[in-house]
Write a structure and sequence with these properties.
By secondary structure, the protein is mostly helical. The chain has two domains: 61-144, no CATH class; 150-251. 78% of the residues lie in helices and 0% in strands. It has seven helices and no strands. Helix 3 packs across helix 7 (221-251) and helix 5 (175-189) packs parallel to helix 7. The longest helix has 78 residues, at 9-86. The N and C termini lie far apart (106 Å).
Length: 253
């Protein structure tokens, strides 16, 4: 459908003179618009491509970090296991030593598969933990090769428990007092003890724990809490003593 626009003569004359300029303006505008549209699309494509690279890098980084995190977690578990063994003085441990040695081999073999993903400091920590275990194992073999003497055990029970040296006399009413007497003697004498003293002391401690276990259902909540605190103190002292011995053992090698 045709549309007719009525114009007067002066207007027509002006349009005729301006036509070339209007055509040039329209052409440039169209080209610029197309160019602008094209650049926007290219920018979006570049952005999408960049996002793809960033996502891939992010995934790779996550995998690396995740691998390191798992290795660090395994190292921590190994350290906790070794510390649990090293901080425990038990004359019966030698009987279970073959099982402990087998477990040590399994744990170290598993850890060493991911050793390359650990940092330099973490690797050093791993080697130090292995050395700690080896020192504990050697020390334990030496200690458990010398059985405790019945006469000396009786003497130590009297020294460490006083009036509670007869374990059967300990009941729910006086068990907390028995632990207080025991820990009082440990605090007073520990500075002059050697490894042999600690072995006998630990034997008495375990016998006291066994007696407590027999009457545990009758012990009051307050006494139970006090006893747990005293047990924690003893274990901390024992661990500190073992740590010093292990450092000496490692340095001497």
């Amino acid at each position: 459908m045709a549309v007719y626009i009525l114009m007067n003569a002066p207007t027509m004359k002006l349009l005729n003179k301006s036509a070339p300029f209007l055509l040039l303006f329209f052409t440039l505008g169209t080209a610029l618009s197309a160019c602008e549209s094209r650049r926007t699309i290219e920018a979006e494509e570049a952005s999408t491509a960049s996002a793809g690279v960033d996502q891939q890098d992010s995934r790779d980084t996550i995998l690396v970090v995740r691998g390191n995190t798992n290795a660090v977690k395994e190292l921590k578990k190994f350290k906790d296991w070794v510390n649990q063994k090293a901080n425990k003085v038990d004359s019966a441990t030698n009987e279970n030593l073959p099982e402990i040695q087998a477990e040590f081999k399994r744990k170290t073999a598993h850890l060493e598969k991911g050793l390359d993903s650990l940092s330099k400091d973490a690797k050093a920590e791993y080697l130090a933990t292995k050395a700690k275990y080896k020192a504990w194992e050697a020390q334990n073999k030496e200690r458990t090769s010398k059985p405790l003497q019945a006469g000396e055990i009786k003497k130590r029970q009297k020294q460490l428990l006083g009036e509670y040296q007869n374990l059967n006399s300990i009941n729910a009413t006086n068990v907390c007092e028995a632990y207080l007497v025991f820990m009082g003697m440990v605090r007073a004498k520990k500075h002059n003890w050697d490894q042999n003293d600690w072995d006998y002391t630990d034997y008495v401690y375990r016998q006291l724990n066994n007696r407590k276990q027999e009457i545990t259902t009758s012990i009051s909540t307050n006494d139970e809490l006090k006893i747990k605190s005293l047990q924690a103190e003893y274990l901390a002292l024992e661990a500190g003593k073992d740590a010093k011995d292990l450092i000496k053992a490692v340095k001497s090698k």
